[in-house]
């Protein structure tokens, strides 16, 4: 019997005034996840931030949606790959374990592990 699919998503902060070099790297993340047998990228896109004074909304972060069969391995692969891709400080890996929403946050060249989301 195949393990149930788990949903993980990654939020990468972006500077709306600069081109986002990260946007083209979903394939590298997907290849690393598939190579490990832990999951795959199922989608990605940009999310808008708060409304500006002029009514416009800039891109605030890039989101990557992932399905995984092995949470521990998928998190490990994501932490390694995202670190190697030099993601911005504040990058988050969101996941759920035993009904609790958790995230790992990239800061100072490493991930702070398992922060509970309240």
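^ structure tokens above, recovered residues below v
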């Amino acid at each position: 019997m195949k393990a149930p699919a788990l949903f993980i998503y990654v939020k990468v902060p972006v500077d709306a005034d600069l081109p986002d070099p990260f946007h083209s790297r979903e394939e590298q993340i997907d290849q690393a996840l598939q190579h490990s047998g832990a999951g795959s990228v199922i989608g990605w896109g940009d999310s808008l931030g708060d409304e500006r004074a002029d009514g416009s909304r800039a891109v605030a972060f890039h989101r990557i949606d992932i399905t995984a069969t092995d949470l521990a391995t998928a998190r490990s692969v994501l932490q390694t790959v995202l670190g190697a891709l030099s993601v911005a400080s504040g990058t988050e890996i969101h996941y759920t374990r035993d009904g609790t929403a958790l995230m790992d946050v990239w800061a100072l060249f490493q991930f702070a592990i398992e922060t509970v989301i309240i």
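The helical segments are 26-36, 71-84.
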